[in-house]
Design brief:
single chain, about 280 residues, alpha+beta, Helicase, Ruva Protein, domain 3, 4-stranded antiparallel sheet, binds zinc ion
């Protein structure tokens, strides 16, 4: 599943060809995604100019000149691919094409159809039901140790679960929560409320560093995600604990051999070093 760095990679790739572009055509071949694509989708976009590509958590936001905002989500398996010429005949999972006046086609492909294409407006997006309960974006100025500590205070839930809760921090998924906790040296099993100011400082810094590095690396490639230009990401090789059960943790001074363990929390795999992470 694409996580925040993958979505940010897609946003940057799309911005390079869509910022300022006028949509000449929008072709929908299948409207039944996780939620049906609105009936007036094409009508509100064709002839409209794209002002800016933004991102909120794992949602792509395409802001149009008339105040319309397209909310896009890649779901489990969604991809956006850029074609600078003829995109070729669509395959069975190519549900939408966005064609610009400059002749670029952005094709949305989603075999499992958990993705989303919805409409809102710049005035209403903050109160949209998908947006209104989201916590601060970990790469935004609204996120820091003080904010994180406030959002963890008083919560008896395991720290791992609290960080996956999108109202705590928006856009963190399983992989980067594991990596951030490893880097901060905090146990995923620790109660969220035990993270005081000092630990929150380390954790906030770890979250920002892990995500920034992943964005810089072009997003992790897991399953079938590719960046919009069709390039594969390569941060997977730099994951310290995720998917490394039974290995000795890299760069860890714990000295323990084969110390990375996998446990299941809330139905999701957690990878961590039980020696280093307390
Ligand atoms: Zn270790």
């Amino acid at each position: 599943m694409p996580e925040l760095p993958e979505v940010e990679t897609v946003r940057r790739g799309l911005a390079a060809v869509l910022d300022g572009a006028i949509l000449k055509n929008v072709i929908l071949r299948r409207r039944s995604l996780r939620v049906p694509i609105p009936d007036d989708f094409e009508e509100r976009l064709i002839g409209n100019r794209i002002v800016r590509l933004a991102r909120r958590a794992k949602y792509l936001l395409i802001e149009m000149a008339d105040g319309t905002v397209v909310i896009g989500h890649l779901g489990m398996s969604g991809r956006m691919k850029i074609h600078r010429g003829d995109p070729g005949a669509p395959g069975p999972h190519d549900h939408a094409d966005f064609v610009t006046e400059a002749g670029v086609t952005v094709r949305f492909t989603d075999p499992r159809r958990f993705g989303l294409l919805l409409l809102s407006t710049t005035d209403e997006i903050g109160e949209h039901k998908l947006m209104r309960d989201l916590g601060p974006d970990p790469l935004s100025n609204g996120f820091n140790a003080v904010v994180l500590a406030e959002r963890l205070a008083g919560r008896a839930t395991p720290l791992k679960a609290a960080l996956l809760d999108q109202s705590t921090v928006a856009g963190l998924g399983n992989i980067y929560v594991c990596e951030s906790l490893f880097r901060a040296g905090l146990s995923p099993k620790r109660k969220a409320k035990t993270v005081g100011p000092a630990r929150a400082e380390a954790l906030a810094a770890a979250i920002r560093a892990v995500l920034s590095e992943a964005v810089a690396a072009g997003g992790t490639t897991l399953r079938d995600h590719v960046s919009p230009e069709g390039e594969l990401g390569y941060f997977a090789q730099s994951l310290m604990v995720y998917g490394r059960e039974g290995e000795t943790c890299p760069g860890c001074t714990c000295g323990a051999k084969n110390s990375i363990q996998r446990i299941v929390q809330s139905g999701r795999s957690t990878f961590y070093c039980s020696v280093r992470q307390r």
